[in-house]
Amino acid sequence: MSDVPDRALPASSLPGVLPGVGPVTLAVLMLMLMLVAACAAPTPAVRTGGATHEQRAARTLGQFLNPLDDNFTREQALELFGEPDRVVHDLLTYFVYELPEGRTVWLGFPDEGPLKYARVRAAGASGDGPP
User: Fold this and answer.
1) Are 81 and 115 contacting, i.e. CB atoms less than 8 angstroms apart?
2) Within this chain, do residues 51 and 88 fall inside the same structural domain, yes or no?
3) What one-character DSSP code corresponds to residue 12?
4) pLDDT of residue 105
5) Does one domain contain both 34 and 53?
6) Which of 18, 23, 55, 124 gets the most CB atoms within 10 Å of its CB?
7) pLDDT of residue 104
8) Are residues 29 and 80 located together in one domain of the fold?
9) 130 SS3 class
10) Helix, strand, coil share of the chain (percent; to 5)
11) For each of the chain's 131 residues, which pLDDT tens digit applies?
12) Residues 56 and 113 in one domain
């Protein structure tokens, strides 16, 4: 048998716990901190603009696929395809080009250097981030 009496320790005697704060209050505070952290997650910044309706209507997927390679730069994208319809800033900077049939082409570039990401999003797909 143990010589220690069977009783609960006061919250102030628990290591790592704020003095004078009970376990329920501490749990509520932790939950609130987790919610604040989740809400503070960064969302991608989006800039819209870009091509005219006529320019978008003339685009084809083939125009985008043929010139892309590991050395393709954002300057080449602007020269060949014009201003994107949207620019999304996340981990990469994404140039988003809309195709006439509703699909979108996403080209992702780091701050410096060539193309790191290229995808086509199906027509009607949801979301503001890359596919």
Assistant:
1) no
2) yes
3) G
4) 94
5) no
6) 55
7) 92
8) no
9) coil
10) 30, 20, 50
11) 556 555 655 555 555 555 666 777 666 666 666 655 555 544 555 556 666 777 777 888 988 888 899 999 999 999 999 899 999 998 899 999 999 888 999 999 999 999 999 999 988 787 767 77
12) yes
Domain that holds residue 34: 1-41
- 36 falls within a domain: yes
Task: Work out the number of other CB atoms within 10 angstroms of the CB of residue 36.
Answer: 9
Q: Which of 107, 109, 84, 87 is nearest to 97 (CA)?
A: 84
Domain membership flag for residue 129: no
Q: How many domains does the chain have?
A: 2
CA nearest 105: which of 62, 71, 73, 70? 62
In degrees to the nearest 10, what's the CA dihedral of 26, 27, 28, 30?
90
Q: Residue 108's closest CA among 125, 82, 126, 89?
A: 89
Return the amino acid letter for 116: K
- Distance from C-alpha of 42 to C-alpha of 47, rounded to nearest angstrom: 16
